[in-house]
Design brief:
The chain is mainly alpha-helical. Helices cover about 70% and strands about 0% of the residues. The termini are far apart. The model has no long low-confidence stretch (mean pLDDT about 90).
């Protein structure tokens, strides 16, 4: 099943939440603990999208997704149920009881979530996390496509081409925003 534009945008948002968590975990304790909340929100967002994609019931309880997705797609099991249960308990302990976790624990949860994303996105959406781009939030179609090409050039290490495409995209964005204004005057 091909991903819809909405699904790609929602995956990009989950990836953005992950990136915020990965930045937050680098801070000194106790500020690094916020990463746990961000990782959980990203995972919950992904699970909601997976549930919808496979036609499963929508769940308000994090751990129910494993059953609902299995009911909708019996041949598939969401991975790491036990470890994700511990991750969920850690989030509850932080959010509702104020219990801080060590940096080692936070890093283990980060690794768990990254692995979970990799497996689920490959299994359910037949793509990779790296292939999901925040460019999906750019509303200007031409600029979005130019910046996607810049991202591909970046992956190939073509620095000059990346700079050129980013400049081209910026120029198109400026021109498209100036055109309506010049007509007004």
């Amino acid at each position: 099943m091909k991903l819809t534009r909405d699904e790609v945008r929602r995956l990009a948002f989950a990836k953005y939440l992950l990136s915020l968590g990965r930045r937050q975990i680098k801070l000194h304790e106790p500020f690094a603990s916020v990463s746990l909340l961000l990782f959980h929100d990203a995972t919950d967002h992904l699970l909601g999208l997976v549930s919808e994609h496979v036609g499963a019931k929508e769940s308000k309880v994090f751990m129910d997704y494993w059953q609902w997705v299995h009911d909708a797609r019996p041949a598939y099991e969401l991975p790491d149920k036990v470890r994700m249960g511990r991750f969920n308990q850690a989030r509850v302990a932080l959010k509702h009881k104020g219990l801080q976790h060590s940096r080692t624990q936070l890093e283990e949860f980060q690794n768990l979530v990254m692995s979970f994303f990799d497996k689920v996105i490959a299994d359910i959406f037949n793509t990779t996390l790296d292939a999901i781009s925040l460019c999906e939030f750019i509303t200007n179609d031409k600029v979005r496509e130019i910046l996607k090409r810049a991202g591909e050039a970046h992956e190939r290490g073509e620095t000059r081409k990346v700079r050129y495409l980013c400049a081209l995209g910026f120029d198109d964005l400026i021109k498209s925003s100036e055109l309506p204004k010049s007509r007004h005057f």
